[in-house]
Design brief:
Blueprint: E1 16-18, E2 21-23, E3 30-31, H1 35-39, E4 61-63, E5 67-68, E6 75-76, E7 81-82, E8 86-87, E9 94-98, E10 102-106, E11 111-113
Antiparallel strand pairs: 1-2, 2-3, 4-7, 4-11, 5-6, 8-9, 9-10
């Protein structure tokens, strides 16, 4: 039997090695052995709001500080509610849509979970 890991996407047992990475012939997914630990959730980043509450995708948050919109003279006011946030691994942790402003990126330190 093979000692190769199952595919992290489709859990197929028919994976094979191609150079320095693994390949799944069923779904076509390719991954590096080092990234397998990250795919298993061992090194996942935890996002927290201003009060220390853990944020998840789809949460609703409230802005706790007036935020200037870069490239515009408008301001996102304190108390603005943002629904259905998406967490990303960038400088600004949150991708969202704010009514009246459109798509925005926010930092998690300027919001609190509802």
């Amino acid at each position: 039997m093979s000692s190769l890991p199952n595919c992290p996407k489709c859990n197929s047992e028919y994976t094979y090695e191609d150079g320095s990475q693994f390949v799944c012939p069923e779904c076509g997914h390719e991954w590096h052995p080092e990234s397998e630990a990250a795919a298993n959730g061992e090194d996942t980043k935890i996002y927290k709001d201003a009060n220390g509450n853990v944020l998840n995708d789809g949460d609703s948050v409230t802005v706790i500080k007036d935020l200037k919109v870069k490239g515009s003279s408008s301001v996102v006011k304190v108390g603005t509610k943002v629904k259905n946030i998406r967490l990303v691994d960038e400088d600004h942790d949150i991708d969202c849509k704010i009514d009246g402003f459109g798509a925005m990126k926010l930092k998690s330190e300027f919001v609190k979970k509802i």
